[in-house]
Write a structure and sequence with these properties.
- About 40% of the residues lie in helices and about 15% in strands.
- With about 270 residues, the protein is an alpha/beta fold.
- It has one domain: TIM Barrel (Alpha-Beta Barrel), CATH 3.20.20.
- Strands 5-4-3-2-1-8-7-6 form an eight-stranded parallel beta sheet.
- Helix 1 packs parallel to helix 3, helix 1 (about 20-25) packs across helix 10 (about 255-270) and helix 4 (about 80-95) packs across helix 5.
- The radius of gyration is 18 Å and the shape is globular.
- It starts with 5 loop residues before the first strand and ends with a helix.
Length: about 270
């Protein structure tokens, strides 16, 4: 039996309605679900209630370890930055209502001064402490504000805050010029969450973006080696399947989720043997 619980990031079945995403995640056998805050905003905008989402989560026995995302905080200037902080606060308050421990802090798409990014991440952490949620720093291989695991780890160390963490992501580490062995040097308690995904064998490495990700075990990343590194550093958080593959969105969401869960279980099992 695996030491980790499994989670489904709902980007994997993105086009499925929100409450259906919750049902599918549970029926596929995942322990938890990563919800996108924009999905909840859209659901409310169409006349739904936050209570509906809470009831569905309770009915299906799912927790939310992490919600997505805080954006614009790294690059905004002047009054726009204040507005972004206010929106970040609202999003963290929503995450707290759902009992989520973390909310993703996404880096800028364009290059950004690293000290500014570090200082502003520190401001998010302060707001999070007031609310009871921890913003966790994300690196994205095709966002030039923070492309690598190395940069994310530098920010987390330099901010000087014991609540600072990062999201480790198999695809973004592989698809960037990250130190591929750095994961084994990061204490497990500084990783909030682990996204498992796979690189496309038919698209050039370092040039891939979200839609290029393929179902785990269909790609080229040594995911069992990644899991072994997580074991070595004492990581005990969620392993979350996060895909953005449009071909999968066109398929039956429950079949996709069940396939992902079975593949994930096999990877976790093989990494222990």
């Amino acid at each position: 039996m695996s030491q980790w619980k499994t989670c489904l990031n709902t980007s994997t079945i993105k086009t499925t309605p929100l409450l259906e995403k919750i049902r599918v995640t549970a029926e596929a056998g995942f322990d938890a679900i990563e919800l996108w805050i924009n999905d909840i905003y859209q659901y409310i905008g169409l006349g739904g209630e936050v209570n509906d989402v809470e009831s569905a989560l309770k009915e299906h026995g799912l927790t939310i370890p992490c919600m997505i995302a805080l954006r614009g905080w790294g690059e905004a200037v002047g009054q726009e930055y204040r507005i972004m902080l206010e929106e970040a606060r609202r999003r963290m308050e929503l995450a707290a209502r759902f009992g989520s421990s973390y909310v993703v802090a996404t880096p800028p798409r364009e290059p950004c001064d690293l000290q500014q990014l570090t200082d502003r991440y520190g401001e998010l952490l302060e707001i999070g402490r007031e609310i009871g949620v921890k913003p966790t720093f994300e690196y994205i291989s095709f966002f030039r504000g923070a492309q690598t695991l190395d940069t994310a780890w530098q920010v987390v160390q330099n901010v000087g805050d014991s609540d600072a963490t990062l999201i480790a992501d198999a695809f973004h580490t592989w698809n960037s010029h990250s130190n591929q062995q750095l994961l084994r040097e990061i204490p497990g308690n500084r990783i909030s969450h682990y996204h498992i995904d796979d690189g496309n064998p038919d698209v050039t490495r370092y040039q891939q973006t979200d839609p290029d990700r393929v179902m785990i075990s269909d790609g080229v990343i040594d995911l069992e080696a990644e899991i072994e590194m997580l074991r070595q550093i004492g990581y005990n958080g969620m392993i979350s399947l996060e895909l953005f593959n449009q071909k999968l969105w066109q398929q039956d969401p429950l079949e996709v989720a069940r396939l992902g869960k079975s593949r994930l279980d096999a990877i976790l099992q093989n990494s222990t043997s």
